[in-house]
Structure formats: structure tokens, C-alpha cells
Amino acid sequence: MKKLVFFIVIAFVSQMLQFVYGQNYRILGNPIEFGINSDFIGLQMRLVNANDYALYFPISTSSNNKWNRIIAKNQIAFFTGDRGLNDTDQPDVIITTQGNVGIGCMTPSEKLIVGGNLRLENNGKIMSNDELEFTGNIFSLNAGGVKGLQFKKGFNNDFTLFFPVSDATNSRWNRIIAANNLSFTAGNRGTTKNETDLFIHTSGNVGIGTTSPSEKLTVSGNLKLDNGKVIINNKGELRINSFNEMETYGDSLSFNIKGTKGLQMKLGRNNDFTMFFPISNGGGRLNRIIAKDNLSISAGGRSMNDENTDLHLHSSGNMGIGTYVNANSEKLTLKGNLKLDNGKLFININPNNIKAILKNKYSAFITGGVLSEDYAIGPQSTWADHVFKPGYNLQSLNEIEDYIKVNNHLPDMPSATEVQENGYTLHDMNVKLLQKVEELTLYSIEQNKKIERLESVVKSYKTLMEKVNQLESRINP
Length: 477
Fold this sequence. Notes:
Layout: H1 2-21, E1 25-27, E2 32-35, E3 41-48, E4 52-60, E5 63-72, E6 76-79, E7 93-95, E8 101-103, E9 112-114, E10 125-127, E11 130-135, E12 138-143, E13 146-153, E14 159-164, E15 173-178, E16 182-185, E17 198-200, E18 206-208, E19 217-219, E20 237-239, E21 244-249, E22 252-257, E23 260-267, E24 273-278, E25 286-291, E26 295-298, E27 311-313, E28 319-321, E29 332-334, E30 345-347, H2 356-361, E31 364-366, H3 397-407, H4 416-422, H5 426-475
Parallel strand pairs: 8-9, 18-19, 28-29, 30-31
Antiparallel strand pairs: 1-2, 2-3, 3-4, 4-5, 5-6, 6-7, 7-8, 10-11, 11-12, 12-13, 13-14, 14-15, 15-16, 16-17, 17-18, 20-21, 21-22, 22-23, 23-24, 24-25, 25-26, 26-27, 27-28
């Protein structure tokens, strides 16, 4: 077939040259030459290489020794620039026996292979059921008239690849942005320079959710592995940077800083999972968290034994501070003192049911009472000794009687209604009761003086009566 095409081309060219130029051609065995005149050769037909048929076209009229060539046998190859004489020369265009065309490619495996760039000008299109479109600085691959994949320049002249987000508007895009760095964004984000889902820096650092990865992988957000693993190298070390590392050895996992042991996780006594935290300048002493069925925390590098813990959480939900607890312990067991700084204690009572004035006044609120072997009140600045000071206005009993008739309680004492609504403080009540006791003491002292005066009068009366009786006996012997 190729031979037939070759000879048809030769016959056609020969007839044309005869028609236009007359008989200005010659056959010299190999090649056959056609010229414009007797001095300049215009076209040659010859056998080259392994008896391939070739057409030679002169490159310019000023030289007869450089040629463009069409070589045909099993394939048809087109060469420019005086190439094609060697088997290693790359043809500009080649047509294979399968009908495949290669441009810059010697072995096209598809209908058309271009071994280089393809440029469309004047808003050109490559049309099929879908289309490839170049408009301005936008290169689009569309489907059914709907915008598909797009290439164009983004902000700061970064090369941007757009993928449509599936929705009714056909106006939202996923983006890949490339210039010095490479950025990937989804969901119509990436319209600002610092907005990215995946960012690859020119240094090789990778950022997820950040455009400034300082480490080989920087994640701005949470990391979740579903049925996944983090595989550490054979040495058991995961280097975070040149100084920090995560290493495994035996049943221990350590996070170190500049060669110094940091956080450690290992199996402790009774195969309990243990976390160790170093104490600053602690001489190798460690804080500990021990977890298995229960959770125990201790600080200060103290030994972990059955009687030594700072916080113990039992699987039953019971908690011990300063002591271990079990299922039969109380909800909270405290071994040591309890101090509340600016805090308040509520026992069996809802704080919302307590008046604000009472909350501001008191620190502990208990429903159900308090049982104690002893109860002490701390030093106070108020007491009832003023009753005994000179000038104290001690009301008369008549005044007290009149007050009680009107108010149904003693002066300076709270009423039943006041106690019901606001309660009372033990100290204040003790002061008032002591005041009344001291007032009663003053009343008693005054009454005792009256009694003594009356007794003196009675004694004088008795003496007088004795004398009267003596006189009567003398008068009436």
C-alpha cells in the first residue's frame, strides 16, 4: 500500500512538473531529480537507508545539499532540517501501518501521539462529545456544555486547577493551586491565600489545614485513625525534630526532649499501665499515673504502694484523696485537711434554694444536721461583757414586761419569723443569750440587795416585837 502511494505521488509530481516546467527532470539511476532549471534541483526521489522510498525537498534555493524528507516503506515519516538519513533521527511526523500518527514520537500507540506541547490559538477548541476549550487564560475540559475541569491563573498568578463541586449552581470549585508551593482545597474554599486543606511547601514540609508547615507534617486540627496504625521505624524512634523524639523499647514508650527522658508509658507493677512524668530537677524522680481497673495518681516522686496515693479513682466510681478506696468506701474519702479558698460547701441542699444574702454571709450549708463530739467557735471580736460596764442601760422588769406583751419575745432577740426566714448564727445567738444571762444576773443582784434590805427590816421588826412583848409581860404580870 505504501509503495503504491509513493509511486502515485511520484507520477503526480512528474506530470505536474512536465506541465509547468516542461522536461526539466533527469533520472540518474538513484535518485530521480526534478528541477526548475538545469542548475537547481527542486525535488528528488530516491532509495535511502534499507531501501526506504524517499522524497527530498531542498531547504532553500541557495543550497542544494540540505533537504527536507518524506521517507516511506512500512511507515511514512516526515523530516525537516536535513534529518532522516540516520535510523536514530526522530521524525517530525510519522504515520504507522496501523494508521496511528505521531508528532515528535517514533512509536505512536494511539491514534495521535504528540511528543511535545500542543497550543491552541484564537480561542481554538478540540471538539468531540466533550470539548477542550481555551479562552483567555482559562483552559477548560467541558462535558455536555457544562463546565468541567479548568486550568487558569489564580491570585498572585499562581497556576490553578479547578474541579467543579457537584451542585445545582455549577459555580463552586475545588482547587489545586501551584506556584512555588502546592495547595489543595475542597468545597469552594481557597479563594484566599491562607485557606488550604493540604499544603506542600517547597521545602518538602506538608501542612494539613495550614499554609505554614514548620515540620515535615504539621496538622492544624485533630488527627483521627480509623482502624489505622502509626508505624515507627525499626529503631523504635519517631523523630519530631533533631532534638525531640518518641522511642519505644521493651514495654516502654518515651517522649524525650534534647536527649532527656520526658513522658514515659510502660507496664508497671501488676501489669498496670503506668505513665511517668519527670520532676524538674528531681534527680530522676517521677510523677505517676497508674491505670488498669482503677486509676491512681501520685506526685513528688513518691513510691507507689497500697498506702500512698494522691488521687485514687475506683472502678465503682468512689474517689479517694490521699488514700486508696474500694467499692465499699464512700463516694469521696479524704485523708487529710479540706480547705476552700473563696469557696462554699453544700451538703444535701440545692444552692439555688438558698437566698443570695445567706450565700454571701455563710460558707457551709448542710441539711440534716451535724453530729460531733465537740464543737468550737473561733476567736470573735464581739461578746456580751458590755452588760457589766458602767452606764449600761438595763431595762426595768416592767419595761421588759411591756415589750413582751407587744412583741412576744425578749428585746434584742430574733423573732420566730426571722429565724424561720433567715436562721441565725450560733455565735450571735450565744452573745444574745449571754447578754440575757448577764442581765438576769444584774436583776438577781438587785433583787438580792432588796431581799437583804427586807431581811434587815424583818430582823429589826422581830427585835422590836420582842421588846414589845417584854413590856407587855411587865405591865400585865
